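User: Reviewer 2 asked us to show a designed sequence for the structure in our supplementary figure. I'm pasting the structure tokens here. Could you produce the per-position amino acids so we can include them in the response letter?
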């Protein structure tokens, strides 16, 4: 076993959005920082996501005539989580989200588009290329002096004795056996466990049919390491998949252009099963729709919409790039609903009946059978599916993220099963539990990783500067 005594102030494990924000913040306030990545390429799930940040009260919203506030954002987050989320964590997010928006813009990132998505009462998804965000953060981190190592999987957390005999987290041990030590502590930003069939079966067996879609390295490593030290786990039963993962393969040569997720329901699409029947209120969170989808035959559903919705297509990295879905062969097009049903394998009579009934509700001639009165969370009015040509996407529920895990406090310190901080251990990003509650508001993950990653680093660097703080031999 090789030991190093270089004495970092902070070690960050996992180089996605959350990990990069934590590492950059620590370096900018004078910390000596090591950023470790398990795989050969940084980014994790962030690299694969839609690039949406849920911010409120921004200049982008103001330019688009959208009235939003941190208080409304906070209420939407609590409502989305069915009030089972930790209100203290949600409040910190709401208080600090605008400052995070400014921090990212100061790095040269520009948020120019805003759109409506799941569990939002007003449009607040600020979309930007996630690859651009990662490259910008990575470059800034290296310029700030962060030491970066890839292909460096961490196997265990290293602990040491503090004064009085108490244990604290003092560093990490790599899979190679090398030990790396830190005065201030370790920030876990390793993502979730969507790629671990064992942990999915243990914690969320109802998602065993969901398609694994998270980052390549998202096998629950950070969760296990902290769990081994007595970390408390929260929200495990609330993990959900994301509705809108295409089941078809894109046309040959178009794989890189094909959207990984598509959400047409928040622009006016209906969601039906193979019998052509709706099975939910399409304005609810796409996480909740994902649960309902898994209950359908073959865990298969279809988003059906018309030209009115197609005209609202927005280029990647949004989840509303319907034109890209059409051009890459994922979305089917037909001049009639009957022909569309034939292409998709939907019962044509069932679809015709469903659309007729839905259109009557849109016109106010009847009650909507699932109580849909908006596009999403009270915002916007549903429109009839009536303007040819018609479009359809065969899709299922993808396990893009798990959004549950380590119990943390408002400074991102990991708590043990007795609700006491595990000294020197922090968590941020997808591995952090308690924030989302029972379901998820679109756009809140990336911003959460930024906010709590920076809080974790500030606390860890301050701890490294305490009298007597030293990396153990």
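Assistant: Here is a per-position design you can include in the supplement:
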């Amino acid at each position: 076993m090789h030991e190093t005594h270089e004495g970092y102030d902070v070690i960050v494990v996992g180089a996605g959005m959350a990990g990069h924000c934590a590492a950059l913040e620590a370096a900018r306030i004078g910390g000596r920082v090591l950023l470790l990545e398990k795989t050969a390429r940084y980014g994790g799930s962030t690299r694969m996501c839609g690039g949406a940040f849920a911010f409120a009260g921004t200049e982008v919203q103001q330019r688009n005539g959208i009235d939003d506030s941190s208080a409304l954002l906070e209420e939407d987050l609590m409502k989305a989580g069915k009030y089972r989320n930790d209100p203290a964590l949600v409040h910190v997010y709401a208080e600090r989200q605008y400052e995070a928006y400014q921090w990212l813009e100061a790095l040269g990132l520009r948020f120019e588009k805003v759109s409506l998505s799941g569990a939002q009462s007003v449009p607040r998804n600020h979309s930007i290329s996630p690859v651009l965000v990662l490259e910008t953060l990575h470059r800034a981190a290296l310029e700030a002096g962060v030491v970066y190592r890839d292909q460096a999987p961490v196997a265990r957390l290293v602990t040491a004795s503090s004064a009085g005999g108490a244990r604290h987290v003092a560093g990490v041990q790599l899979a190679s056996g090398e030990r790396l030590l830190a005065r201030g502590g370790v920030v876990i930003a390793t993502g979730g466990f969507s790629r671990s069939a064992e942990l999915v079966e243990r914690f969320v067996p109802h998602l065993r049919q969901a398609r694994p879609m998270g980052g390549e390295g998202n096998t629950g490593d950070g969760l296990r390491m902290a769990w081994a030290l007595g970390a408390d786990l929260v929200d495990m039963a609330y993990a959900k998949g994301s509705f809108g993962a295409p089941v078809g393969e894109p046309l040959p040569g178009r794989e890189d252009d094909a959207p990984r997720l598509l959400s047409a329901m928040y622009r006016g699409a209906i969601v039906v099963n193979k019998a052509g029947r709706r099975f939910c209120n399409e304005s609810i969170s796409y996480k909740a729709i994902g649960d309902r989808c898994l209950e359908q035959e073959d865990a298969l559903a279809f988003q059906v919409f018309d030209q009115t919705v197609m005209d609202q297509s927005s280029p990647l990295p949004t989840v509303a790039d319907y034109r890209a879905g059409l051009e890459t062969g994922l979305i089917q097009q037909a001049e009639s609903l009957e022909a569309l049903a034939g292409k998709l394998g939907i019962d044509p009579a069932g679809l015709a009946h469903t659309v007729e009934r839905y259109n009557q509700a849109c016109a106010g001639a009847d009650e909507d059978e699932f109580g849909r009165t908006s596009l999403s969370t009270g915002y916007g009015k549903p429109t009839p599916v009536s303007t040819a040509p018609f479009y359809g996407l065969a899709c299922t529920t993808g396990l893009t993220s798990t959004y549950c895990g380590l119990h943390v406090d408002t400074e991102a310190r990991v708590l043990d099963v007795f609700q006491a901080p595990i000294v020197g251990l922090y968590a941020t990003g997808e591995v952090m539990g308690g924030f989302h509650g029972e379901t998820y508001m679109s756009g809140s993950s990336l911003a959460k990783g930024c906010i709590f990653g920076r809080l974790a680093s500030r606390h860890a660097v301050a701890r490294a500067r305490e009298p007597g703080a030293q990396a153990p031999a």
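For the response letter, you might also mention the following. The longest strand covers residues 179-188. The chain has a mean pLDDT of 94.
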